[in-house]
Structure formats: C-alpha cells, structure tokens
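$ ./design --mode recover --in tokens.txt
reading tokens...
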C-alpha cells in the first residue's frame, strides 16, 4: 500500500465513522516515513486532536496480536479478506473477515462471563466466547470495540502456527 492508498484508506475509516480519530506513524530505521492524523469531526472533545495528542496505553496485547496477524499476512499464510470461519469452524458467522476482527468492525458482541471463563483455561474460555457470540450489525458497517475479537485472532494465530501468541511473537 503506498502513501496515497494509506491516506485514502484512513480517510474512508474516518468518513465512515469507523473511528472518531486516527493517528498513525510508520518508522523505518528511526525515521518517520509515513504519518497520518485526522478526526471525523463528530465529537467536540477531539476538536484539538493532533499528532501530539496523548492517549493512555491500554490493551497492549491487541497491538501485538494485530502485528502478528500482519506477520502471517506478509508471509502469505493468511489474508485479511479471508472468512474467519474458514479457519475456525466454531465461529458462528460466515461473512466476518479477519480484517473485521482487526478493525473492531465484525458486527459481533459476546455475553461470555469473562472472569469465570478466563479462570477455566484458554480452550474453555474460547469455547464460551464462540458459544456466546451474537450478531448486532452487519460486518464492516460500524466500529465497536470488542475484546473477544482479539481473543479470536489469538486463537487464529495458534491454529495457523501451532504456537501460542508468546511463542510466535518471539520468532
């Protein structure tokens, strides 16, 4: 994707209200080689949004998970446009693509009891997620922060590599 494609893509994300604001920078050898910053203008609290706006860091695992999915894509082992169910038969919807999970635009929600599920082990946790997924809107139509989507991406990484997130990350 070249600079023009990136600008167009990020502009479409904002125009489609899939995000309220975006700040993206790409570093190569200590030099910023690409930069994008913008807002969709909907929320007044982002009126002063700029490349210097600071946000609290949260859910760092999501950043690592996304980077590892991109690594699989770059290596030709996965496509952002592949249907999730083609890799995870327990996933209930056949129209949700990997890119939808990455961008929190899957249109899914889940009512799994998080604390209880996490304490029962990883596979049991994922089974409760898959059993509790429900459709709330068509995929790709709106952004809705959904932590379980990244748990599903972690499962996808495990299924594609045979390794845990931590093991694959260290390669």
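writing sequence...
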């Amino acid at each position: 994707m070249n600079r023009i494609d990136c600008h167009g893509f990020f502009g479409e994300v904002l125009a489609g209200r899939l995000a309220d604001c975006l700040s993206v920078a790409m570093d190569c050898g200590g030099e910023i080689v690409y930069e994008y910053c913008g807002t969709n203008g909907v929320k007044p609290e982002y009126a002063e949004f700029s490349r210097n706006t600071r946000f609290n860091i949260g859910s760092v695992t999501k950043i690592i998970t996304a980077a590892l999915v991109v690594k699989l894509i770059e290596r030709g082992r996965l496509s952002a446009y592949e249907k999730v169910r083609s890799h995870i038969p327990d996933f209930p919807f056949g129209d949700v693509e990997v890119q939808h999970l990455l961008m929190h635009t899957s249109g899914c929600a889940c009512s799994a009891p998080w604390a209880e599920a996490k304490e029962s082990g990883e596979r049991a946790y994922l089974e409760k997620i898959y059993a509790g997924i429900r459709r709330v809107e068509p995929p790709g139509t709106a952004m809705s922060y959904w932590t379980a989507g990244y748990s599903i991406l972690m499962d996808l990484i495990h299924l594609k590599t045979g390794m845990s997130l931590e093991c694959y990350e260290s390669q």
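exit 0
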